[in-house]
Amino acid sequence: MEIIELKKNNYLTQKETTKKAFSNLEKTLVALRRLNLSEDSVIKINDKIQEINSFNEDSERKFRRKILIQKSNIINLMVKTEGLIPEKHYQNQWFVLGMTTFGIPIGLVFSMAIGSTAFLGLGFPLGMLIGSMIGKQKDEKAKKEGKQISLSFE
Predict the structure, then answer these.
(1) Which of 45, 61, 83 is the last residue of a domain?
(2) 3-state secondary structure 52-114
């Protein structure tokens, strides 16, 4: 079984942002077609594409939102079912986790040591840096294991 084609709707892809979202989803599907995916994953991906192909509202904004949501759903499906991750997946994830997990406690330590709550925000950039480094290490490990797929199109 193969991943179905995404049908372009010229009426709903007039704005540049919608064209870019549509193009990124098409490129993602091309990259996924090259992989040996399970039949269950292909069926789920085809269901998500079918939702986009059968979109029948007149709002380009809603169409773009549908595209972005379905692309995110497809990528999450790949992570959960196939164990495949896009480039910088963990780095982006740990960026936020580092800010909250490490940044807040570091900021509290600074603010208590100095005696002013004005320095509470000092921990956020340090937490983001720590989180990015952890995420980068996890991404490198996934790349070495062959679990990383290239989906960057910018």
Answers:
(1) 83
(2) HHCCCCCCHHHHHHHHHHHHHHHHHHHHHHHCCEECCHHHHHHHHHHHHHHHHHHHHHHHHHH
Write down which residue in 83, 98, 128 finishes a domain. Answer: 83
**Both structure tokens of 108:** 């509290």
Task: Give the count of alpha carbons within 13 A of 106, CB side only.
Answer: 17
pLDDT computed for residue 152 by the predictor: 58
CA distance 29 to 35: 10
Share of the chain above pLDDT 70, in %: 98
| Domains of the chain: total | 2
User: Shortest CA distance to 53 belongs to which of 30, 70, 34?
Assistant: 70
Q: Which domain holds residue 29?
A: 16-83
Predicted confidence (pLDDT) at residue 85 exceeds the cutoff of 70: yes
For residue 148, the cross-strand partners are 85
Cα–Cα distance list, 68 to 75, 78, 114 (Å)? 11, 16, 45
Tokens of 25: 């989803």
Q: Are residues 69 and 120 in the same domain?
A: no
- 101 pLDDT above the threshold of 80: yes
Bridge partner residues of 49 (DSSP): none
